Amino acid sequence: MNVARQSHTASILINRKVLVAGGYNGSHYLNSAELYDPSTGIWTTTGSMSVARALHAASTLTNGKVLVTGGTDNSGITLNSAELYDPLTGIWTTTGIMNDERTGHAASTLTNGTVLVTGGSNSGSNSDRLLRSAELYDPSTGIWTTTGNMNVSRYLYTTSTLTNGKVLVTGGTNRGGHSLNSTELYDLSTGNWTTTGSMNVERTGHTAARLKNGKVLVTGGYNDVGSILNSAELYDPSTGIWTTTGNMNVPREYHIACTLINGKVLVTGGSNDRNDYLNSTELYDPSTGVWITTTNMKFAREVHTASILPDGTVLVAGGFGYAGSLNSAEVY
């Protein structure tokens, strides 16, 4: 990439390019953005956001634009601003302001085209300022409206849009600073949250990947006793129950998981219980519940991004490693 970045976002555009936006370069937060062209393997700069931000969220809308929300800026201020990237022009425009400032939150594009933004913190990682509020963005009006609150305040958790259209939220850290095993579901038709089965293990800094069979695979993270986890478990939307599955070969936090076109799940990087940054990767096979190691990345990295390209390969970009913030990218 042209700029080293961690805690940035990556979005697949309708023209098949990958948009990387914002993040932190080790000394300041970024408003810059750039595009990866899979046909050439080259990065080019594109329009900059109006505000520098990291730990924000990005959502690809049904109209092809990308919505970026919240995050933290260079003054350490948590943001409620949002802006839109138009792939046709390469220009960012501001849109409606969220009702709450948020960083370390999550955003999910729903079946009706609206975007659900949930939780996070309105004061950095301060566990006393974590949120359970949620709100919806309507692309047709650019307006945010509040919706039902989550049952628990959460930070550094995961969200997954299920095949039935509901949104599953898992784990994270609560207002007391404790890792959670609780999970809950958002129903767009009612605007309400309901608790569902608890995970077998408390997790923060973990990942969630929806499998082709509709189940959700959760991996790794850390818990209250300071343990970094190699365990994994599966959520079945038809029963609301979590069941353990095969352990990863390596404990990981702040790694990335993505579901490949062949149905397997690729996990990349992160850090382990010895505070080592990882270049190792492994594959989960849903048909066997077994993890196998695959080839190592060229660079150890955590808080990076991974994007499934149109040809089925995976683009990994940026993150943080032994050399600090990274501008390297590689394809699996």
Notes on the structure:
The protein is an all-beta fold. The chain contains no helices and 29 strands. The chain has strands at residues 9-12, 18-21, 33-37, 42-46, 57-60, 66-69, 82-86, 91-95, 106-109, 115-118, 134-138, 143-147, 158-161, 167-170, 183-187, 192-196, 207-210, 216-219, 232-236, 241-245, 256-259, 265-268, 281-285, 290-294, 305-308, 314-317, 320-321, 324-325, 329-331. A 4-stranded antiparallel β-sheet has the order 1-2-3-4, with no helix packed on it. The protein has a 4-stranded antiparallel β-sheet with strand order 5-6-7-8, with no helix packed on it. The chain has a 4-stranded antiparallel β-sheet with strand order 9-10-11-12, with no helix packed on it. 49% of the residues are buried.
Work out the number of β strands: 29
Order of strands in the sheet with the most strands? 1-2-3-4
- Strand percent estimate: 35-45%
Backbone shape: globular
Topology:
Layout: E1 9-12, E2 18-21, E3 33-37, E4 42-46, E5 57-60, E6 66-69, E7 82-86, E8 91-95, E9 106-109, E10 115-118, E11 134-138, E12 143-147, E13 158-161, E14 167-170, E15 183-187, E16 192-196, E17 207-210, E18 216-219, E19 232-236, E20 241-245, E21 256-259, E22 265-268, E23 281-285, E24 290-294, E25 305-308, E26 314-317, E27 320-321, E28 324-325, E29 329-331
Antiparallel strand pairs: 1-2, 2-3, 3-4, 5-6, 6-7, 7-8, 9-10, 10-11, 11-12, 13-14, 14-15, 15-16, 17-18, 18-19, 19-20, 21-22, 22-23, 23-24, 25-26, 26-29, 27-28
